[in-house]
Amino acid sequence: MDTDLALQILVIILSVVLLIALIVAIVAGVLIVKLVKILRGIAEKGEQLVDNAENTVSTIRQNVGAAGLIRTMTQLIKLVNKVNKKG
Q: How many domains in the chain?
């Protein structure tokens, strides 16, 4: 009878340990899913930030090119005006 009692106690202990391990695994799984969702959101925001930066740089490049062209045209007009005043 001592063996049966020992086996029953062992089965109860193992069942409790298995239950605790199962609960811990479920909680860990839920937390991992939440973490993955948060990381995806951060990645999307980072992607949007990079896209906005690229658009800003592109706009700046276009404006710098236009400003350079306007500056060159202004200098050319001033030069033509000087030549016309002398001549």
A: 1
By residue range, what is the domain housing residue 71?
1-87
Q: Is the whole model's pTM more than 0.85, yes or no?
A: no
Question: Concatenated DSSP letters for the chain?
Answer: -HHHHHHHHHHHHHHHHHHHHHHHHHHHHHHHHHHHHHHHHHHHHHHHHHHHHHHHHHHHHHHHHHHHHHHHHHHHHHHHHHHHHH-
Q: Using CA of residue 5, residue 7, residue 11, residue 17, what is the dihedral sign?
A: positive
Structure tokens at 16: 């409790």
Q: Cα-atom radius of gyration of the chain, to the nearest Å? A: 37
Residue with tokens 């007009």: 77
Give 24-65 pLDDT, tens digit per residue.
999 999 999 999 999 999 999 999 999 888 888 888 777 777
